[in-house]
């Protein structure tokens, strides 16, 4: 359980860092990705994109 929590956290950090580049491909705007403004700052929580990318990476690793 702890391993998956760490994987999801790392994926969220990577997606947030690559957000401008990934948004051109449509990631970060999927249903399930949360975007809101709080205290004058834009917050983004890409839950659906994280799950999608985690599945893609997991399948790629499994096939290799």
From TrEMBL:
Provenance organism: Comamonas faecalis
Family annotation (InterPro entries) = DUF2905
Segments traversing the membrane = 6-22, 43-61
Going by the UniProt record, its keywords in alphabetical order are: Membrane, Transmembrane, Transmembrane helix
Q: Know the name of this protein?
A: DUF2905 domain-containing protein
Keyword Transmembrane helix listed? The answer is yes
């Amino acid at each position: 359980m702890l391993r998956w929590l760490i994987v999801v956290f790392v994926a969220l950090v990577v997606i947030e860092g690559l957000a401008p580049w990934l948004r051109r491909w449509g990631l970060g705007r999927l249903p399930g990705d949360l975007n809101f403004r709080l205290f004058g700052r834009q917050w983004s929580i890409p839950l659906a994109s994280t799950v999608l990318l985690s599945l893609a990476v997991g399948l790629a690793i499994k096939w290799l």
